[in-house]
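Deliverable D5.2: sample structural annotation.
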Amino acid sequence: MLTVQLLVNTLALGAAYALVALGFVLVLNAAGAVNFAHGDMVMLGGVAAVTLAAMLAGAGLRLPGIVLLPLVVLVSGLVGLAVAALGFWPLRDRPPAAMFVATIALAAVFEQSATAFFGPEPRTAPPIWDGAPLVLGGITLGRQPVALIVVAGIAVAGVHALLERTQAGRRFRAVAQDRDMARALGIRAVHLIIGAFVLAGGLAGLAGALLGHQFFVHAGQGPAYMLKAYIATAIGGWGSMPGALLGALLIALFETLVSAALSAVWAQALLYLVLLAILLWRPQGLFGEAIGRRA
């Protein structure tokens, strides 16, 4: 029974990390550069969930977390638009290093602003699905992990359908493969890249709201989420979306199952050893490299 519960918790954590990694890879493929503010965008999603819940409660409305998620995604999408407007648009014709520096600066602004507005003390986001645990076949499961898996699964499936089954998705993939050729074919690459920032912001905010109940929300957690996104991408393959999802699940595996078997310290050490082994065996990652540029 304990093993099944740990497995569900692992899948739930991996699903949330998959949203973080997916948004990271979307911008990486579209803009050809790393958005170093992505981890702090996840943090802002948690801040938005806590703040919106408090504001609505002050107005006499106590909405469940699942109802707040669309509002959080909307706010986070606007944050992604702001990152595109400040960190990409003015520097779109500059080398990728210029965007690196700009997004690092934005990450610092987000963290300091969140500290000033939100305060330094950790807080907890509202649960997605509150209530008594579920009992299935004699196994007791928490509602929150189950809801997290379902919500994150729907979001990942929606992004997959958008990229694979729509004209906008095909154009986005063309831009990711060769931006200059896409422009020559009349595709508005800049508009699609800005759209990728908005979508990545929404995914980051959704992940922050989902993780904000399991972990405390505080202004300084952005770099940790950024590191997880980077590790997931490096493991799976630079620019590979399926690889990033697999890398996210691997991180969750170490943070839950390996931590339960050994300790959190050993889990972190072994995760980095696995990362090093994968990069030595396959420097391009498990799923190869979808784009020809590295950060």
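Annotation notes: The radius of gyration is 19 Å. The chain is about 75% helix and 0% strand.
The annotation will be released with the project's public dataset once the embargo ends.
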